[in-house]
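User: Here's a structure from my thesis project, written as structure tokens. My advisor, Dr. K., wants to see whether a designed sequence matches the one we expressed. Can you design one independently, without my sequence as a hint?
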């Protein structure tokens, strides 16, 4: 990858969990405990594959017809509260992301977040790490009617930024997120924090794989 590969984009759109902060193991473990309590024998590797989209949607996939929407939302809120308490001591940006955000800002590349996370979890990251100042658009799971891989999340983010979809570069860590970007007509950089490269072999919109942002920050 070369400098012009990044600088040609007018906007960077970031997923949150596993992409800006390395917290997916906390989410997977927290959800695994929840579904076990609810009677599931799902192994943790299967739980990892289910951890996408809104919590209430995930619970419906695992326990179809077993809980009302209100019950699923309440279960999800309890889980997210526990996640924030457990992750707070380890909360930090993935290596190099602070430099990337600063350089992109200086280059007038617009930035936004498109995540299935709820508003409280997004605020938890942005405010504790003091990076809200970089984000000119925020689309949470509570702001869309259709979760990833439906393109609504990233298209809404691009619309808020007033940037055409094909001028946006998405940063993601899951196949569902990359699928969302592809459906929105956007290229993606994949953080291999959550899934191995082999899980993304069917996608043609990925321009780069990386463990962190250090190399990318040096290219801006």
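Assistant: Designed independently from the structure alone:
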């Amino acid at each position: 990858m070369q400098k012009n590969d990044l600088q040609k984009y007018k906007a960077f759109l970031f997923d949150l969990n596993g992409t800006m902060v390395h917290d997916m193991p906390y989410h997977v473990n927290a959800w695994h405990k929840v579904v076990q309590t609810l009677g599931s024998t799902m192994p943790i590797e299967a739980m990892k594959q289910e951890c996408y989209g809104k919590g209430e949607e995930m619970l419906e996939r695992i326990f179809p017809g077993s809980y009302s929407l209100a019950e699923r939302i309440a279960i999800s809120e309890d889980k997210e509260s526990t996640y924030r308490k457990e992750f707070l001591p380890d909360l930090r940006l993935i290596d190099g992301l602070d430099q990337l955000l600063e350089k992109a800002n200086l280059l007038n590349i617009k930035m936004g977040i498109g995540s299935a996370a709820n508003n409280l979890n997004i605020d938890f990251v942005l405010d504790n790490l003091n990076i809200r100042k970089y984000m000119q658009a925020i689309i949470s799971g509570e702001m869309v009617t259709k979760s990833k891989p439906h393109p609504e999340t990233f298209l809404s983010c691009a619309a808020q930024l007033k940037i055409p979809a094909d001028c946006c570069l998405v940063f993601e860590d899951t196949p569902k997120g990359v699928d969302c970007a592809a459906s929105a007509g956007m290229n993606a950089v994949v953080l291999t924090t959550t899934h191995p490269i082999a899980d993304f072999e069917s996608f043609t919109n990925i321009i780069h794989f990386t463990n962190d942002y250090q190399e990318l920050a040096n290219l801006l």
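When you compare it with your expressed construct, this may help: The beta strands are 11-14, 110-114, 137-139, 168-172, 187-191, 206-210.
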